Amino acid sequence: MQSEKANAAVSDDAETQRWNYRPDGAVPLNPVFSWPPKPREIIAWYAGAWLQITSLTLTMGLAVAAYLLFLPPLEAMQTFAPGWMLTIWLLNMVPQTLVAGSLHWWLYIRKNQGMKKKFDRRDLSRDNGIFTFRNQVWDNIWWTLGSALTVATIYQWGIFWAMANGWAPTITWESSPVWFALWLFLVPMWSSFHFYWTHRLEHHPRLYRHVHAVHHRNVNIGPWSGISNHWYENLLYLSTYFVHLVVASHPLHVMFHIYFQQISPVLSHSGFEKVTARDSEVMRAGDFFHQLHHRYFECNYGTSEIPFDRWFGTYHDGSAKSTERTRAYKKQMYT
User: Fold this and answer.
1) What residues pair up with 274 in beta bridges, in sequence order?
2) ∠ CA(223), CA(295), CA(195), 5° rounding?
3) In this structure, which of 49, 130, 168, 311 has its CB flanked by the most CB atoms within 10 Å?
């Protein structure tokens, strides 16, 4: 028994050596789905998500600002017209560029925190023929702004037009305050559910080879990698928005869903667990759960919010044992 423990410790030490930085312990999963219930862990999980600067609070703030300051009223979107349609496009392009560009500038151009909290030792790739323009960052910018946000904007035009014309159910705070608040809370859950199943589909060998491989060019990820996807993948990934055609929603729900789906991947793919300034942690950023997926591919298909990977046997907890299991599974899939 002691020998087995010693071997496991050596293996995990070797796994640690593969990373510049790796969080201690197993990669955590949402304790809401644990049994028996663990109220303290659940409270800590959601306090960590909503009571500091995270992808949730950032995207919620952006959604509120966009809704209050820039989003046209639904009445103005009853017919397709250049004015409001251009506004929707800009509400996609400007925040995405500002968040991804600023984070890339801070972490990879200025390198203001050096390698602190950076998972992978390597820098982003340059002069590499696998990437469009032979440059990882330019490749990612093209597939993000040119592909992902084009598909996103077209989908959003249709959803807002449908809501404005009564083709999709809508609510207000006054008419349904409980559902209004609850649906905001559930949007990330729906996003996680949808992401797992579409992402798992994209790892079918045929779809992976011709479509999802564009995203997985990014073994070492950066802020612009988040939604750097092939056109066909974006058609699937962003179809998550169609839930608002059947579930009663308010434009604020749609805006929160938009920014959570498009901007939170900027943080989760940043390559750094935390953004720091002057030795203080400013915000939570990178997601080691998903970083493991980019390194080992056939694991952690979903998110830590709903533990589908644990339920279906593809959960990588960051240990050497999980790496060995993932490699065996990958070999089985592709042989």
Assistant:
1) 284
2) 65
3) 168
